[in-house]
């Protein structure tokens, strides 16, 4: 499992990190429990301590895009505290998780006390913009098999654990969820995964995906 790329605290000095932990309060969420909904007012930001959080966007016609699975250390829910707008996504517990919650009062106090906190918010927003740019390019320029390979690799970086059989994803990832990530149908994703398995790239067992060759999966991103 790689270090969290969306951890606000990685850009803060120790004294600011300590102030963050002191101002935040802990909360547990059960699998599938809603943290906040798209369109809600945003009065807290969150830092994931353990588990996984699912971030998604829904259209008025009911179609949904699974944007990201957050790993421990990742911070989310900051944009509504910065711009005062409603939540742009829905966040729910993908599995049992613990989070640190920082309300608007604590958020504003940290911004006023530590200039580095604003700098960290800018860095975090930039990370998200780079991710969105990559996802947009993938959706319009990459074949479905390359998009599936890209999302499996990204999930393996965040939640992969090395086993004798290969790199196992430590969070369940259904074919329907993978389809929501890549903007395809479950049937199409199933065909892609079956081909990956036949080619010796992954092993499938229910919702468990074991990556057998990250290099070969990565090579698909530029060869399609």
TrEMBL record:
One Pfam family cited in the UniProt record for this chain: HTH_Crp_2
InterPro entries membership: cNMP-bd_dom, cNMP-bd_dom_sf, Env_Response_Regulators, HTH_CRP, RmlC-like_jellyroll, WH-like_DNA-bd_sf, WH_DNA-bd_sf
GO CC, one annotated term: cytosol
GO molecular-function terms, A-Z: DNA binding; DNA-binding transcription factor activity
Keyword DNA-binding: yes
Keyword Transcription regulation recorded: yes
Domain spans labelled Cyclic nucleotide-binding: 8-110
PROSITE patterns per record: CNMP_BINDING_3 (PS50042), HTH_CRP_2 (PS51063)
Domain HTH crp-type: 142-215
Keywords assigned by UniProt, alphabetized: DNA-binding, Transcription, Transcription regulation
Name of this protein: Crp/Fnr family transcriptional regulator
Organism for this UniProt entry: Sphingobium chungbukense
């Amino acid at each position: 499992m790689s270090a969290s790329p969306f951890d606000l605290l990685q850009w803060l000095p120790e004294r600011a990190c300590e102030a963050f932990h002191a101002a935040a309060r802990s909360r547990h969420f059960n699998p599938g429990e809603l943290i906040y909904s798209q369109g809600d007012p945003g009065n807290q930001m969150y830092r994931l301590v353990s588990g996984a959080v699912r971030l998604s966007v829904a259209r008025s016609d009911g179609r949904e895009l699974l944007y990201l699975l957050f790993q421990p250390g990742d911070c989310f829910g900051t944009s509504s505290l910065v711009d005062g707008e409603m939540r742009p996504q829905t966040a729910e517990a993908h599995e049992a998780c613990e989070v640190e919650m920082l309300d608007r009062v604590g958020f504003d106090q940290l911004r006023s006390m530590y200039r580095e906190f604003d700098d960290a918010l800018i860095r975090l927003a930039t990370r998200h913009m780079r991710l969105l740019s990559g996802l947009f390019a993938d959706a319009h320029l990459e074949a479905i098999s390359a998009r599936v390979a890209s999302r499996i690799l990204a999930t393996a970086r965040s939640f992969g654990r090395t086993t004798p059989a290969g790199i196992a994803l430590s969070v369940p990832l259904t074919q329907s969820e993978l389809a929501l990530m890549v903007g395809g149908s479950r049937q199409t994703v199933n065909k892609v995964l079956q081909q990956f398995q036949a080619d010796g790239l992954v092993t499938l067992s229910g919702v468990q995906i074991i990556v057998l060759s990250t290099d070969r999966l990565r090579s698909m991103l530029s060869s399609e």
